[in-house]
Amino acid sequence: MSDPTPAQRPAPYIRRATAADSPALSHICLVTADAGSSAEALHTAGELPGLLYAEPYAHLPTGFGFVLVDPAQPAFAGVVGYALGTWDTRQLERDLDAAWFPPHRERYPLAAGAADATDAFVRLIHAPPAAPDVAVAFSPAHMHIDITAAYQRQGWGKKLIGELVRFLRDEKGLEGLWLGLDPRNSNAKKFYSRLGFKGMPEAPGAVMSLNFADWKD
């Protein structure tokens, strides 16, 4: 039997993220964690980026998200991208400290004198920085988005963010959200700018914000 033609293959689609997506979220976070490129070579414990920036949003009460699924992909149930967020950043921070990080802190104790990427992430698990007050004052909601390379530049990023916007606006009554980004990732900054995100120079680090009034479906 011949392989299905492109027209016969099931099309990718977006659905709500669930806790069962954790392995996929972890993998996608790792292969995009080095300013949009794979960080697999930088970590001896490849699950660490996802433990910080992806998986909690599928497990904690104030976390939520959406995943991009390609049924033609056998790995990780076809999940090839995600947009994750929270409508209450400060509550998420409390939940991370009380419920999410403790078992991972036991698994990954602090190592004195270490300076590689893995140990930098271990230090973040033990002492995660709080979100900037100025960003939370703009909106209690923040987000993360990552898509594997083969599915980028096809409009999926905007569609995933659109799902977050509609949920936060229509279900939670919010007027905006923000995100932090790696300042080395110039392509990400250009992408967010095209969608209406604006820089927040008063925030420490690289932060961009979106007023939902500027969002165009």
Give me the Rg, rounded. 17 Å
**Series of secondary-structure elements, N-terminal to C-terminal:** EHHEEHHHEHEHEE
Quickly count the helices. 7
For the record, the count of structural domains works out to: 1
CATH topology: Aminopeptidase
Sequence of strands across the biggest β-sheet: 1-2-3-4
Average pLDDT value?
93
- What does the overall shape look like? globular
For the sheet with most strands, the description reads: 4 strands, antiparallel
Write the CATH homologous superfamily.
Gcn5-related N-acetyltransferase (GNAT)
- Percent in helix: 25-40%
| Poorly predicted residue ranges | none
Report the β-strand fraction as a percent range: 15-25%
Q: What structural class should be given to the helix and strand makeup?
A: alpha+beta
For the record, what CATH class applies?
Answer: Alpha Beta
By CATH, the architecture is named 3-Layer(aba) Sandwich
How many beta-strand runs?
Answer: 7
What does this structure look like?
It is globular and about 45 Å long. It has 7 helices and 7 strands. A hairpin with a 7-residue loop joins strand 6 and strand 7. The N and C termini lie far apart (41 Å). It has one domain: 3-Layer(aba) Sandwich (Aminopeptidase), CATH 3.40.630. The strands form 2 sheets. The protein has a 4-stranded antiparallel beta sheet, with helices on both faces. The chain has a 3-stranded antiparallel beta sheet with strand order 5-7-6. With 217 residues, the chain is α+β, with helices and mostly antiparallel strands. It has helices spanning 22-31, 48-53, 89-107, 117-126, 133-138, 156-171, 186-194, and strands at residues 13-16, 63-69, 79-86, 142-147, 176-180, 198-199, 207-211. 35% of the residues lie in helices and 17% in strands. GO terms for molecular function: acyltransferase activity, transferring groups other than amino-acyl groups. This is N-acetyltransferase domain-containing protein.
